[in-house]
Specification:
Length: 246
C-alpha cells in the first residue's frame, strides 16, 4: 500500500479521535490520561496480557535465581513497574525496587503487592528509564522491563542505564511489543494507528525495532526470541522476549 493510503487512513482515524486531539490541544488530555485513564486501562490490559503470556513469562523468569549475588541476595530492579504484573513470577525472598515515571499506579500496585507477599519490596522510585540516578551503579543482580521500552524517550539511553545499574554478570529481562515485518499487513496497520495510538496510550510507539537496540548494546550475551501474542484487533501482536547478560 502507498504512503498516501497510510496518510489518508491516519487522517480518518484522527477524525474519529478528534475529541481526544482537542483535549490534548487544550492541555487537558495528558494529565487526565496519566492520572486516571492510563492507570485504569493498564490494569485491565495487564490482566489480559498476563493470561496470554503466562507460560512465556514463567519460562522467561525461571532462571532468575541463577543470578543471585555471591552474598546470597537476589536484588531486582523493575523499570516501569505499572500495576506489578510481574511480581507473581519472582522467586521467594528476592528484594525488588520498583520504578515508574508515572506515580499514579498505587491502587493496582498495592493490590499486586498484597497478593505477592513472597517478595520483599524495597523502594518505589518515580523515575524515567533513561534516568535512574537514585540507583547506585552495579547495585542490582537483575533488571526487569516488560511493555515499557515502547514508551521511553530513548531506548538506547534506557539500556545504557540498565548496564550501569547491573553488577557484572547480572541480567536484563525483557518482553516488549515491536514493529511487525515491513511487508506485512500488521505493519501497515501499525503505521496507520501510530500517531493516534501514541496520543491515547501515553506515548506508546508501535513501530520500534527494539531487538536492534538490544543487539547493538554492550551486553556480553543476548538470548532473544520473536514471538506472536494473540491480541486480536490490536496492533501489538509481534513481541520479543528474552534476557541479556552484562
Amino acid at each position: 500500500m502507498t504512503e498516501a493510503s497510510v496518510l489518508f487512513l491516519r487522517a480518518c482515524l484522527a477524525l474519529l479521535a478528534m475529541p481526544i486531539y482537542l483535549l490534548s490541544f487544550l492541555g487537558i488530555w495528558e494529565p487526565f490520561c496519566r492520572k486516571i485513564f492510563f492507570p485504569y486501562f493498564l490494569e485491565k490490559f495487564s490482566a489480559v496480557h498476563e493470561r496470554k503470556t503466562k507460560k512465556q513469562k514463567q519460562e522467561l523468569f525461571r532462571n532468575l535465581p541463577d543470578f543471585t549475588s555471591p552474598s546470597g541476595e537476589l536484588k531486582l530492579l523493575e523499570i516501569g513497574t505499572g500495576c506489578g504484573a510481574n511480581f507473581q513470577f519472582y522467586p521467594p525472598g528476592c528484594k525488588v525496587t520498583c520504578t515508574d515515571i508515572n506515580p499514579n499506579f498505587q491502587r493496582g500496585l498495592s493490590r499486586s503487592m498484597s497478593k505477592n507477599q513472597h517478595v520483599h519490596y524495597e523502594h518505589f522510585l518515580v523515575a524515567a528509564g533513561e534516568d535512574l540516578h537514585e540507583v547506585p551503579s552495579g547495585s542490582v543482580d537483575a533488571v526487569i522491563c516488560t511493555l515499557v521500552l515502547c514508551s521511553v524517550h530513548s531506548v538506547n539511553g534506557t539500556l545504557k542505564e540498565v548496564l550501569r545499574v547491573l553488577r557484572p554478570g547480572g541480567a536484563f529481562y525483557f518482553l516488549e511489543h515491536v514493529a511487525a515485518d515491513h511487508s506485512s499487513w500488521k505493519y501497515f496497520w501499525q503505521q496507520i494507528c501510530y500517531p493516534t495510538w501514541k496520543l491515547v496510550f501515553d506515548g506508546c510507539c508501535l513501530t520500534r525495532e527494539i531487538w536492534k537496540n538490544l543487539e547493538q548494546a554492550n551486553f556480553s550475551e543476548l538470548k532473544l526470541q520473536h514471538i506472536s501474542v494473540a491480541l486480536p484487533w490490536t496492533p501489538i501482536q509481534p513481541h520479543i522476549i528474552g534476557y541479556a547478560v552484562k
